[in-house]
Amino acid sequence: MPLRFVNLPSVDALLRAPDTEQMLEQHGRTAVTDAIRQELSDRRATKQVLGNGDDVAGILQATHERLTALATTSLRRVFNLTGTVIHTNLGRAPMAEAAVEAMQDAARFPANLEYDLKSGKRGDRDSHVEDLICRITGAEAATVVNNNAAAVLLVLSALARRKDVIVSRGELIEIGGSFRIPDIMKSAGCKLVEVGTTNRTHAADFESAISTKTALIMKVHMANYRIDGFVAEVPEPDLIGIAHKHELPCAIDLGSGTLIDFSSLGLPHEPTPQSAIANGADLVTFSGDKLLGGPQAGIICGRADQIKKLKKNPMKRALRLDKVTLAGLAATLQLYRDPDRLMNRLPVLHLLTRDVDEIRAQAARLLLAFQKHLDGLAEVTAQDCQSQIGSGSLPVDRLPSVALNITPVAGQRAKGKAVAHMAAAFRGLPIPIIGRLSDGALLLDLRCLGVDEESVLLDQLNNFAGIYDLNR
Ligand SMILES: *Cc1c(COP(=O)(O)O)cnc(C)c1O
After folding, report:
1. Do 160 and 285 share a domain, yes or no?
2. Do 369 and 429 share a domain, yes or no?
3. Residue-level pLDDT at 48
4. What span, in angstroms and rounded, lies between the C-alpha atoms of 270 and 291?
5. What is the number of domains present in the chain?
6. Ligand 1 proximity of 223 Cβ (cutoff 6 Å)
7. Ligand 1 centroid vs 144 CA: distance in angstroms?
8. Ligand 1 centroid, distance to 409 Cα (angstroms)
9. Are residues 83 and 49 in the same domain?
10. Relative to the CA of 176, which ligand 1 atom is closest?
């Protein structure tokens, strides 16, 4: 029997339907009309033509679902219970309250971004952070760009375009997300001169590689891996000494670049920009959103004449920070003026130094609720585990923590499939909960769960059974 479309209601009729009123109120006429047209057209294409008059309610329900999906932005808040504190894929450092407020103000109102309030003339956007960075690091001058990859790119192209850059072979690393030192050299138009071997590089290797074509000696902090055993590298002060002996600048890419002494907090030692500057480095680059705990940014500090070259380079204009980020970075750096209270004010440091007993108490508070909501679906226990710092910090350095271990009742599924399905259900919650898989269980490491977020987390579980369908 040939299909006929006569039973589909008209767009106008659907727009006039009483149930449409609320959708119009919420989404506006244009969006609702578009969604209705789309729905009707899909029904025609899939031949969902109804025999019994019009299915206004069904069409409107589908239209409503279309509109809701379109109104949900894809970038959303999630719970980071992976156990990796600075998780690049989950947006790295959560920011301090003072930074969030400064960013809101910068977004909402005009600001003296490039305007000197004293003279009434044009100002420099770097001025809002340069002094702070210099005071903290001891550098003569500083500038900021969009991220640390951009910082490295700017240093290379401003100082060493069409020239040689000497780097130890053991430092030709990939940071992740396709940031590889050799590739970034190429895109900056520099010629990479590798010296030494993967495990050993000596002062003489650098000395003999220096020529009239050399523009820069660079040292890259080996952030995400470590070579043990028969190893040798040239100590930073010696390397800088070699560069200066040949009247060459030395740039150090630190990556994480914490501004405080990590070992005094009971955390693994991390090199600081302060020590690199004190060793005589001409330029030091590091990230704003790793251990520093601010917004995504790349910070470059060092000698005034070198920073001046960077500021004059056209690439600086293309890589510059926007006012919202700049406001967040300035507010974050301000917090470092009061180191005693930094721990309570800077979320990254607070999360990294959380006491394991406090996390254990948190697990105990949440355990019963999880057991209740997952009754019949999974066994839930509290389990000691190890968190990671993340974002280029050594993966071998671990922080003791406590996780909720969620082991699904397999039902008709294989064990691996059941836990994958369980993890997917947690990701499907209104505020997705991201854990990590381990030994057929989903671990929710509680290190990064604020005490004030516990009730929001538990609210999510009300929807859980609906999303996780045991036997599907
Ligand atoms: C993380 C890192 C980078 C890249 O920094 P982004 O801020 O992610 O652009 C560069 N170098 C090192 C050594 C790093 O650890």
Report:
1. yes
2. yes
3. 60
4. 10
5. 3
6. yes
7. 14
8. 41
9. no
10. 1
